[in-house]
Write a sequence for this structure.
């Protein structure tokens, strides 16, 4: 099996309506290691088929991005179970101390109960990227090791 590749890229992410959701423009490009799960699958696959210096429009369906929305990830809980005293719609917090613990969004407050959504905010969304592949090369042993240690 070939060593993973290291790629560096700029991107602008838009929703289906063309509204900009995020961009790396004006900052340093992102760097990722192939197969490390650092970016969504649909975007990584497209970048790895590009040549250095190439710019491309990439549309990532929900299934290859942040997944489809799952109704069971929306739950009503008693307000007293939240880790903070004050809460408002739109607040987000991690559900546990582990960095892999889900992040939830407060979507409604109904008296003493709060409706929380553990879906990714972009779940169910078709993602429209403009990407520029700045560099693509074999990953160094140090980069591979660093990603492995970070994943622990």
């Amino acid at each position: 099996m070939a060593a993973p590749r290291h790629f560096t890229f700029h991107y602008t992410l838009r929703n289906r309506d063309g509204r900009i959701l995020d961009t790396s423009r004006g900052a340093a490009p992102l760097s990722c290691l192939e197969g490390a799960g650092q970016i969504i699958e649909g975007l990584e696959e497209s970048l790895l088929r590009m040549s250095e210096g190439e710019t491309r429009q990439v549309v990532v369906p929900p299934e290859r991005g942040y997944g489809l929305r799952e109704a069971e990830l929306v739950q009503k809980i008693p307000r007293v179970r939240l880790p903070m005293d004050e809460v408002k719609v739109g607040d987000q917090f991690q559900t546990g101390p582990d960095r892999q613990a889900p992040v939830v969004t407060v979507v409604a407050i109904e008296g003493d109960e709060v409706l929380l959504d553990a879906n990714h905010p972009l779940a169910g969304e078709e993602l429209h990227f403009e990407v520029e592949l700045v560099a693509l090369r074999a990953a160094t042993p140090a980069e591979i090791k660093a990603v492995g240690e970070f994943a622990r």
